[in-house]
């Protein structure tokens, strides 16, 4: 029961807005990471015996995991955005369908898990296959640069996903989207 101009009885929706923004950034970062890794240019390495070896991300299973897990996380995060916005994200939590709330919890657990697995695999692959990947730095391809960009983007997506899950349950003291015109003087 507010008094005065622009007063509303509605609870602040800042956490919903921040969560939506973080979900969108998670989706964008995960998809970008997958695309950067999947388009890693071929690199040709000349071994000591004169043999020529062409390297792509498919030669390293952890990089394939990164692409697959980031695409899966992107799809799940898109479902999470739909569940948040389309299935009761603006309504009271009690009014949202129970199945949508359960699925949203699943998304909030699965997305960070997938992104952290993918990122960890990529970081460990860079350590394990370091000399082979580093050999591409001086070669004609941009393989090493794209591997590094992709793993950093995947790390940022994981941080964004964890932050979205956190801010979903924290009430922030501000409102973002406007209230109805009836609430104004």
UniProtKB/TrEMBL annotation:
UniProt xrefs under PANTHER family: CASP-LIKE PROTEIN, CASP-LIKE PROTEIN 1U1
Please give the name of this protein: CASP-like protein
Provide the assembly information. Homodimer and heterodimers.
State the species of origin: Panicum hallii var. hallii
Entry-linked InterPro entries = CASP/CASPL, CASP_dom, CASPL
Its primary localisation, in coarse terms, equals: membrane
Segments traversing the membrane: 20-41, 62-83, 103-129
GO cellular component, alphabetical, reads: plasma membrane
Print the keywords alphabetically: Cell membrane, Membrane, Signal, Transmembrane, Transmembrane helix
User: Which residues, if any, are the signal sequence?
Assistant: 1-30
Top-level taxon in the UniProt lineage:
Eukaryota
- Domain Casparian strip membrane protein, residue spans: 16-157
Tell me which family the UniProt entry assigns to this protein: Belongs to the Casparian strip membrane proteins (CASP) family.
- Localisation: Cell membrane
Its topology with respect to the membrane? Answer: Multi-pass membrane protein
Q: Membrane: is it a keyword of this entry?
A: yes
The coiled-coil regions, if any, are none
Instruction: Respond yes or no to whether keyword tRNA processing is given for this record.
Output: no
């Amino acid at each position: 029961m507010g008094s005065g101009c622009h007063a509303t009885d509605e609870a602040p929706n800042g956490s919903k807005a921040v969560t939506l923004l973080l979900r969108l950034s998670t989706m964008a970062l995960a998809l970008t990471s997958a695309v950067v890794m999947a388009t890693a240019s071929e690199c040709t390495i000349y071994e000591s015996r004169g043999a020529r070896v062409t390297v792509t991300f498919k030669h390293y299973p952890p990089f394939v995991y990164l692409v697959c897990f980031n695409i899966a996380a992107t799809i799940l995060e898109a479902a999470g955005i739909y569940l948040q916005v389309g299935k009761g994200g603006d309504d009271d939590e009690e009014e949202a369908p129970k199945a949508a709330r359960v699925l949203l919890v699943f998304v909030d657990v699965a997305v960070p898990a997938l992104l952290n697995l993918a990122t960890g695999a990529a970081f460990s692959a860079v350590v394990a296959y370091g000399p082979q990947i580093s050999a591409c730095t001086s070669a004609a391809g941009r393989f090493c640069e794209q591997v590094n960009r992709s793993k950093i983007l995947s790390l940022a997506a994981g941080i964004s996903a964890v932050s979205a899950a956190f801010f979903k349950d924290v009430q922030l003291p501000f409102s973002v989207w406007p209230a109805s015109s009836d609430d104004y003087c």
